[in-house]
């Protein structure tokens, strides 16, 4: 390996949003993550978080339901 071109490989403190933290090694001293093995549903076997986000189109349609967007109203003759 060439000298003086590789980053420093140091101990790293990983902190999860659930409060869990552990030490590993990386090129940065601190990493913050949103999900770890202590709170991820795959590892815990529970559905701790309900992830129900509607698609972008459904969200748009709900937001603007009933608007005519400048179109002429159809008359029933």
TrEMBL record:
Textual note on the cofactor: Binds 1 zinc ion per subunit.
Cofactor section: Zn(2+)
GO cellular component terms, A-Z: ribonucleoprotein complex; ribosome
Alphabetically ordered keywords of this record: Metal-binding, Ribonucleoprotein, Ribosomal protein, RNA-binding, rRNA-binding, Zinc
Top-level taxon: Bacteria
InterPro entries: Ribosomal_bL28/bL31-like_sf, Ribosomal_bL31, Ribosomal_bL31_A, Ribosomal_bL31_sf
Record family assignment: Belongs to the bacterial ribosomal protein bL31 family. Type A subfamily.
Subunit structure: Part of the 50S ribosomal subunit.
Protein known as: Large ribosomal subunit protein bL31
Encoding gene, per UniProt annotation: rpmE
């Amino acid at each position: 390996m060439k000298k003086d071109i590789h980053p420093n490989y140091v101990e790293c403190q990983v902190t999860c949003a659930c409060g869990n933290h552990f030490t590993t090694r990386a090129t940065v001293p601190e990493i913050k993550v949103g999900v770890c093995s202590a709170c991820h549903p795959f590892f815990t076997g529970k559905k701790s978080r309900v992830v129900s986000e509607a698609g972008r189109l459904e969200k748009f349609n709900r937001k603007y339901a009933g608007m005519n967007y400048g179109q002429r109203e159809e008359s029933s003759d």
